[in-house]
Specification:
This protein has a single domain, classed as PCu(A)C copper chaperone (Immunoglobulin-like, Sandwich). Strands 1, 2, 3, 4, 5, 6, 7, 8, 9 and 10 form a ten-stranded mixed beta sheet that branches. The termini are far apart. The protein has two helices and ten strands. Helix content is about 20%, strand content about 45%. It is an alpha+beta fold.
């Protein structure tokens, strides 16, 4: 009789443990519902260059912090801000990036961006870079994976994309 009680207690505990694992697992899946990441791209590098930069736009439906970023092409990714001070461009590393609910947050050239240090290989137009971003909301930490396209930024001077139109009569 005692063995039977122990077995049912164990089964109850295992059922509870499984539910707990499923509940915690769903928090990780929930990340995409909290933070939307769009327009992710990485600037191509030239031969011998071992530092790169990545850009993207975050929109969060609650106040969260971007606390950590990892990538498959580098050992180290840092969050940086750039600002003009007395005519000098200043760059500084940030421990985290706070995202306010409902406010799109653009990482773009000349502003906030991700610095990629000690690149494992050159970044060429058309390559894809994988990122894993860690966000924190209160005591809850969640990760989100994204792919960013390596592409040359489009300059404002060449909006026509190099197309010429000839009309023949």
């Amino acid at each position: 009789m005692n063995t039977l009680t122990t077995t049912s207690t164990l089964q109850r505990f295992l059922r509870f443990a499984l539910l707990l694992v499923l509940a915690v697992g769903s928090v990780t899946l929930y990340a995409k519902d909290i933070v939307t990441i769009g327009n992710a791209w990485v600037r191509p590098t030239v031969s011998g260059q071992d530092i790169g930069a990545a850009y993207m736009t975050f929109t969060s439906n609650q106040n969260v912090k971007l606390t950590h970023v990892e990538s498959d092409i580098t050992k180290s990714v840092e969050i940086h801000s750039m600002s003009m001070q007395n005519g000098v461009m200043k760059m500084r590393m940030l421990e985290m990036l706070e995202l306010a609910a409902g406010k799109p947050y653009k990482l773009e050239p000349g502003g906030f961006h991700l610095m990629l240090f000690d690149l494992k290989k050159p970044l060429l137009d058309g390559d894809q870079v994988n990122f894993e971003l860690t966000f924190k909301s209160g005591n809850t930490e969640f990760k989100q994976k994204i792919k960013a396209l390596v592409k040359t930024p489009v300059s404002s001077e060449s909006n026509d994309g190099g197309h010429e139109h000839h009309h023949h009569h």
